[in-house]
Amino acid sequence: MRDDVPGQKGDLQLVQLLPNLMTIAAICAGLTAIRFGFQSDFERAVRLILLAAVLDGLDGRLARMLKSESKIGAELDSLADFLNFGVAPALIVHVWALQHWRGAGWIAVLVYAICCVLRLARFNVTSKDADDTADKSFFVGVPSPAGAFLVMLPMFVAFLFPDMPRLPVEVLAGYVVAVGLLMISNIPTYSFKKIAVSRRDAKFVVVGFVLLIAALLTYLWATLALLSIGYAATVIWALRPGKTPKRGQG
Questions:
Q1: pLDDT per residue as tens digits for the range 225-234
Q2: Which of 121, 139, 182, 239 has an alpha carbon within 20 to 30 A of 81's alpha carbon?
Q3: Quick one: CA torsion of 136, 140, 146, 151, rounded to 10 degrees?
């Protein structure tokens, strides 16, 4: 899109609106997830957060492919990230397990949401002043989409093992706060966008992607739980002594 350029005239191709339409669709998914959360339909709410994450991963790439990046699109994307990965997961977790713990559960939700918006604000600022010497294979802190799925990890486990006792509310609240703090931390986290594979091995990546989609469609909660635990393991791995890189933006 070029709707943010004053005085520019001419028709806009409909296809160039697709990235922003996808972002708006992600916002709709996040808002609807909150609705289902308040209706105690938690599984459907989490599925909608997953849909929002998929749309979030596609809209920027589509905008670059179509050469339709815009300032409005960038702002929309940031606002969508805050709603879908900062507000919606926190509210859903609060209704799921924290709402009966007086104000302490709500404080944990507030801390997580504020950490998410600070994380996004830092990303917006640093991405405009990127350091070319930084290691682009790493972010600073946990990205907001990963934070959302980490904070919902106890829900994935509960859906997978419905007869298993839930975590004590105090532990769960502390966990929510800890995930929020990880987002604004300075620890290095892997940026999987920068992973490169040889053309010879590309077929194995395609097969792996197909298996991942099949696993999500067949064993959703087990797959999300394993992915979240695996990501947490990469955060720990990146903190190995002597292996801390010069972090990239994010």
A1: 999 999 999 8
A2: 239
A3: 170
Give the C-alpha separation, 216 to 209, whole Å: 11
Q: What structural domains and CATH numbers belong to the chain?
A: 14-238 (1.20.120.1760)
Q: What is the dihedral of CA 77, 208, 217, 26, to 10 degrees?
A: 0
Cβ-proximal residues to 44 (8 Å cutoff; 6+ apart), any chain: 33, 36
Neighbours of 189 (CB within 10 A): 22
Beta strands in the chain (DSSP E): 138-140, 188-190
- The per-residue pLDDT for range 44-87, each reduced to its tens digit, is 999 999 999 999 888 877 777 877 777 787 888 889 999 999 99
Phi and psi at 140, nearest 5°, equal -100, 115
202-211 burial, b at 16+ Cβ within 10 Å, e below that, comes to: eeeeeeeeee
Give the predicted TM-score (pTM) of the model. Answer: 0.85
- 158 by Cβ neighbours in 10 Å (0-12 / 13-18 / 19+) ranks as buried
